[in-house]
Amino acid sequence: MFRFISRSRYRIPVIVLGGVVCLAAVLACRSLFVAKGHAGPAISEQIRSVAASVLGDSPQPALDDVEVNVQASNVEVSIKTSHFAWAPGAAGRPNLQGEGHAHLQLDNNPAVMMSAGSNYEIRNVSRGPHVLHVELVQNNHQLIPGQMKFVSFEVVD
Q1: How far apart are CA 137 and CA 63, in angstroms?
Q2: At 138, is the pLDDT very low, low, confident or very high (cuts 50, 70, 90)?
Q3: How many CA atoms lie within 13 A of 68 on its CB side?
């Protein structure tokens, strides 16, 4: 099945050696490319993603930050994630690694809002202090472990 190279007393499968050489070449070219100012973070992220899939170590989705901007009685919510693809149309379908949506809950209200993307607006929020609970969830609405945040804010108008 494998052809072996004999050097000294070690035997290395050609396919493994070829894979390691290819990965090293890609990473070396990426370093030169980025060093000369030709690539940005998107290219770096793609290379990290390919390397992770080759090595079998996929990065886990993360809820990095939640920002709120109060405009009168409306609250604009900005959800920052990494290694996560927004897939509101897949809600209720089988889970895919790194795909899903967010659940938002204001002041422990039993009504949960579903965010289809990284920006969401909550309208007609009453005056006073509030707490917004944001969860990053899979397609089946289950929480991605550890990916939740609480944000406090106040509506004064």
Answers
A1: 10
A2: very high
A3: 24
Tell me the C-alpha distance between 88 and 104, whole Å.
14
Q: Please, which residues have CB within 8 angstroms of residue 20's CB and are 6 or more apart in sequence?
A: none
From 76, 103, 98, select the one nearest 87 (Cα to Cα): 98
Give tens-digit pLDDT for 53-64: 455 567 899 999
CA-to-CA separations, 22 to 16, 19, 52, 56, in angstroms, rounded: 10, 5, 14, 16
A 10 A CB-CB count for 58 gives 12
DSSP string, 62-110: EEEEEEEEEETTEEEEEEEEES-EE-GGGTTSPP-TTEEEEEEEETT-S
Paired with 6 in beta bridges are 11
Cα gap 152→92, rounded to integer Å: 30
DSSP annotation of 25: H
